[in-house]
Amino acid sequence: MQLFFHDWFTAHVSSWNTDSHCAFRIDRAPTEAPPPSARSPLFRFKRPHPPTPDFGCASAGRSFALEIAEAAAGGGRAACARGGQAAGGDGAENTQPLFGHQICTAMEVSPQAPSKDAYCAAMVLSGAGDALGYRNQRWEYCTSGPQIHQELQEMGGLGQICVSLPDWPVSDDTVLHLATAEALATGKNGEPLLQELASRYVEAMKDMDGRKPGPTSILGTSQLRPEEPGGYRIPFNPSATGCGAAMRSMCIGLRYPHPSDLTTLVQVSVESGRMTHHHPTGYLGALASALFTAYAVQGLPLERWGLGLLKTLPLALEYIQSTAADSDLNVGSWAYFQEKWEWYLSERGLASGQGPARFPSAYGPAERDVIYKTFSLDGWAGRSGHDAPMIAYDALLGAGDSWAELCSRAMFHGGDSDSTGVIAASCWGLAHGFRGVPEGNHQKLEYRDRMVAAAGNLYDLAWGQKPV
Ligand SMILES: [Mg+2]
């Protein structure tokens, strides 16, 4: 189950369950309380191990209140991560007030299990988004969104496009995204997982004919030594600001979709990202793609994703500093990613995490080409780790449930359109499945079977044995 609370709320402990989870019920404040029948459903909060019997009701209430407020601000960071034993007893209906009104922005807790089809759509449509944006090199390197739209119209529109070989191959984005997904699908964790990722990235580079891999990915994978201890780490690279890490990381959010997975999501996205892009602007793009995908799984309102990313960055910085791998160089280059995202959210009126997003009054293909460039590091929109997920996010905010509009905004523009497309389509697929997507856009997609298989395996790993 999942719920969102946006304003004031009160919470009550309803019960401790025998599975060491505490159930809560979130209510609106009395001034705006809905009738009891409309109260939100229970959610679960993990009980500490061992329990802390001296944690009185008042202090427990305060602890939980602070944690939930923190979780709200951090996009769910603290939810289920830590808890105190609150008074409330073991009776199923032994409800006691836990804490008073707390202001809260929003959070997601114990997300309801999505369908396996949604996971399938996330993987398959990411490949479709890549192939559409790429158009066998032609559209990735076309600098005019209006020209791409014109060519699309001359082909009969999106519905007439059959995304299949030889004209519509997937690009490097999907090959490397599959490498990430298939490494995660092994179920490995920790060091063995990082070695698996490095090994598969090296292997994936053998499948790049006609797929235009980026120079930083080529260099980074040439430096990996997955057979050696710690061989998944490469030196800091001041030029590794590209989107090559961001474009292959959505599946990390499929593997670690729960709020309680956040620490792991941060670590795996940072480590896998810097296997080729050892620069914060590069590997934080991997974090953004993974986190946004997790948010999409959770059903978190889009307007809150950007703020959630900003609130998660300190976790990534903490991790970087703890691993002592060129820590000073990383810290010295840290600010740009964060500042650019703060600027973007301010532009869209989303700095506080409250919507609706504010777009320019004229925002068609021509205007978007101009505006997207203002997101960029060097004038090539979507080329970098920060702005590939930024353009994808911008497109998601504007597209609603329309696949055609998503493609117009994320795949058919004058920038690095396959990388923005691969990210946007993955998140969109989680929310909307294949609804409204022309069958020709994905049914004969190259590597479709591998994507479906990876989606199923990631789903089973993420949801198979997880208490909800
Ligand atoms: Mg590509």
Automatic annotation (TrEMBL):
Cofactor annotation: Mg(2+)
InterPro entries: ADP-ribosylglycohydrolase, Ribosyl_crysJ1, Ribosyl_crysJ1_sf
Alphabetized UniProt keyword annotations: Magnesium, Metal-binding
GO molecular function, one term: metal ion binding
Top-rank taxon: Eukaryota
Pfam families per the UniProt record, alphabetical: ADP_ribosyl_GH (PF03747)
Keyword Metal-binding: yes
Cofactor binding: number and manner: Binds 2 magnesium ions per subunit.
Residues at which Mg(2+) binds: 171-173, 416, 418-419
PANTHER family: ADP-RIBOSYLARGININE HYDROLASE-RELATED, ADP-RIBOSYLGLYCOHYDROLASE
Entry's family note: Belongs to the ADP-ribosylglycohydrolase family.
Protein name: ADP-ribosylhydrolase ARH1-like isoform X1
Taxon lineage: Eukaryota, Metazoa, Chordata, Craniata, Vertebrata
